[in-house]
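One record is given unchanged without comment:
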Amino acid sequence: ALEMDLSYRSTISIYKSILEQFNPALEKLVYLGNNYLRAFHALSKAAEVYFKAIEKIGEQALQSSTSHMLGEILMQMSDTQRLLSSDLEVMAQTFHVDLLQHMEKNTKMDVQFISESQKQYELEYQRRATNLDKCMAELWRMERARDKNVREMKENVMQLRLEMQAFVSESQRGAELEEKRRYRFLAEKHQMLYNSLLQFYSRV
């Protein structure tokens, strides 16, 4: 009974951890990620204006007989920055669509799914526990009354205990798997982003 109670508490703790810690943390990540994107777009716009100004100075230098080569260098710098900005915009779009939107959608769906899973587990656990308690009380009554069907009731109680233990153990493994899936989702999504960033910087 103690082992089942500990397993039950562990399963409920996992569900609560997902609902009260993981999902809120994911929502905060989405919020911070959107702030990050806004800051990136502002920086990208500022960089575009800045290097546009560099380009204009480079065009002026091209008209000079003494600074023609320097003008070409400035123009090349501006072109290179434009290409880098374009690649970064693609990265930002990937970050927005493949990561932030996906996380936001998953979080909203997950809150309902985990809440329902926890509720169903609690109800089923209570139903089984109540049924087992009733049978044990009946067994105790039958033993005191020296009922001839005591053996049959003992077997019934033992079977209910085994089924209860199997249900509790299976439910705990299921909750642990749900928790692991969420952390794996987060890790895999960010690993893809990290790999894309590495590829980008390797080309710079």
